[in-house]
Amino acid sequence: MKKSVLFLLTLGAASPVLAQSASLSPSCVSASAITQDACQKTIDLFETMAPQFGTSLSAGAGVLGQPEALGALGRFAIGVRVNGMRGALPLFADVAPSVTGAVASAYGSQEQVMGFATVDGAFGIFKGFATPAVRFLAIDALANASYIPSLELGSVSLSTVAKSVRMGYGARVGVIQEGHATPALSVVYLRRGTPGINLSVRPGDDELRASDIGFDVSSIRATLGKTFGPIGLLVGAGSDQMEGQATVSARVTHQGVTVQADPFQVSQDRKETSFFGEASLRMGPLHLVGGVGRNNGSAVATYNTYDAATTGTSRNFATLSLVIVR
Predict the structure, then answer these.
(1) What is the tens place of the pLDDT at every residue in 40-72?
(2) Which of 22, 32, 40, 252 is deepest in the core (most CB within 10 A)?
(3) For residues 138 and 140, what is the distance between their CA atoms, to the nearest angstrom?
(4) Strand runs labelled E in the chain
(5) Are 174 and 186 in contact (CB under 8 A)?
(6) What is the number of structural domains in the chain?
(7) Cα separation, 63 vs 150, whole angstroms
(8) Cβ atoms of 31 and 138 closer than 8 Å
(9) Is residue 159 a contact partner of residue 197, using CB atoms and an 8 Å limit?
(10) 180: Cβ contacts below 8 Å, ≥ 6 apart
(11) List of residues 6+ apart from 236 with CB closer than 8 A
(12) pLDDT tens for residues 185-230?
């Protein structure tokens, strides 16, 4: 069964995961037999979902619909962007944790559209240097904001820890501004992040929980674009450095007795590359922008395994944005 979920407002996952098998986490080796399996399955919950959040957040160009820097002071662009990525949601709730020690379980999954909506802003700082043929090295300051509501993603519950909004920042350099016969070449650095996220799954009376997930993505993008009347075309590529951390814990109920696994910290660092293209329709100051692309990242080894829907390390994504440029 296919379901689509749209996380509303900025930020934003990633190419998850995994048919590789990892050894039991050292943090779970010393856990009691009744909580050891729940401990490991909670780590795998984080390892599986965190990359998808990161990729969904960073998909596409750093600034949609603008092949060149704004440059001049007083110029700005404000847009609302929606990212959607073809992801997969492992069916964690279908397998109850073992109470006799860790067991490497095989999970099924369902396809899931993972997405975030973001508010992006660009503000002209320096118009660059001019030659008779071209202008170059214009500079913009960039800002973004992200928001995550509470959601139910199949068997996974998602909520924010405190504030639902997270701010980000960056800069764009118009290496070469667009000319009559030449395209624009720009380089963007952008830092995005998620508000603290709580994820939980309840297989029966048990609970697997990854709390206060923080995910930061540092992105570099190079784009080449050209306008033809009201139509703008752009292609680009880039890399994303993703850093995530969370506190994991588990609760297991057996024969009427509930046992709590001690919480501990986990982290994940990964690097991904992406390739994308987009087209924009310019109606005066209002730009409607759509794009598609593909993200490539390394697989994450987990103790438990997942079916074919989650084993890919490449993900397709789409972006849609409405931008006001002045």
Answers:
(1) 999 988 888 888 877 888 888 888 778 889 988
(2) 40
(3) 7
(4) 3-4, 76-90, 106-107, 109-126, 129-130, 135-136, 138-147, 151-153, 156-160, 165-176, 184-193, 197-201, 207-228, 231-254, 257-283, 286-297, 305-306, 314-325
(5) yes
(6) 1
(7) 27
(8) no
(9) yes
(10) none
(11) 61, 221, 222, 223, 224, 275, 276, 277
(12) 999 999 988 777 888 888 888 999 988 888 888 999 999 999 999 9
Residue with tokens 């296919």: 2
Residue whose token pair is 């919950």: 45
Gap between the Cα atoms of 310 and 307, Å rounded: 6
Give the Cα separation of 264 and 249 in Å (integer): 7
Of 85, 84, 86, 90, residue with least CA distance to 18: 90
List the CATH number of the domain containing 125: 2.40.128
Question: Domain limits at 303?
Answer: 3-325
What's this model's pTM, rounded to 2 decimal places? Answer: 0.82
Q: What's the confidence (pLDDT) of residue 17?
A: 36
Tens of pLDDT, residues 110-165? 887 877 788 999 999 999 999 888 899 999 999 998 877 777 766 778 787 766 77
Q: How far apart are CA 114 and CA 306, in angstroms?
A: 18
d(CA 59, CA 140): 20
Please check whether residue 96 is in contact with residue 294, taking contact to mean a CB–CB distance below 8 angstroms.
no
Find, among 161, 154, 258, 249, the residue nearest to 208 by Cα: 249
Q: State the residue for tokens 């039991």.
A: 24
Structural tokens at position 7: 């996380």
Q: How far is CA 296 from CA 12, 17, 254, 271, 299, in A?
A: 16, 11, 42, 9, 10
